[in-house]
Design goal:
194 residues; mainly alpha; Arp2/3 complex 21 kDa subunit ARPC3; 65% helix; binds ligand 218
Amino acid sequence: MNKNLRVWVEGTIIAAMAMVLSFIPLDFGPSLSISLGQIPITVYALRRGWKPGLFAAAIWGLLHFPVGKVYYLAVSQVLIEYPIAFAFAGFAGVTAVKLHQAIQAGNDKQARIAVIQGTFAGAAARYFWHFIAGVMFWGAYAQWGMSPVLYSLVMNGASGLLTAAATMVAVLLIYQMAPQLFLPKDARLQQPVK
Ligand code: 218
């Protein structure tokens, strides 16, 4: 298969896997949740880099519409929370080159650090947008007399950290079991290390 096409096809399969994982109910009310779909997206972004990562994550966000899994408060809120916020999960791939170099150099510790950093980058980039949407649109849900900013920070901060923690555990296990998954034979992120 054409190399480019292979990357895109992998991305759409990953997006579908992420959408299936999103059906595992780990929601605690409308504002707090653990998002397991972040796991395959993070693996893929670390394997293929952040650009394909953004693509796969955006497809994951868009898939929420046909399956009817969208929290709707306003058109602009939906645009921020689905195409934009989800796409930003692909930024887990910012450490892909570092990870590939570490695996090629046999530096296991450096590889794990790259996995952890990428995982947090993806979760932080995504939940930043949920935080913004939370301040703008979810203030009416604020509990315990919190201001909209504090409520959004607490809820999206907790959701982001829980999601990052679950993703980190899963992706480190996947790395331990199958490190070659993160270093495809047709990788074009960088020249092979001489
Ligand atoms: C304070 C607050 N509450 C709820 C939301 C909506 N939100 C948060 C995180 C993730 C998602 C995507 C679907 O799980 C949504 C819609 C918010 N942004 N802020």
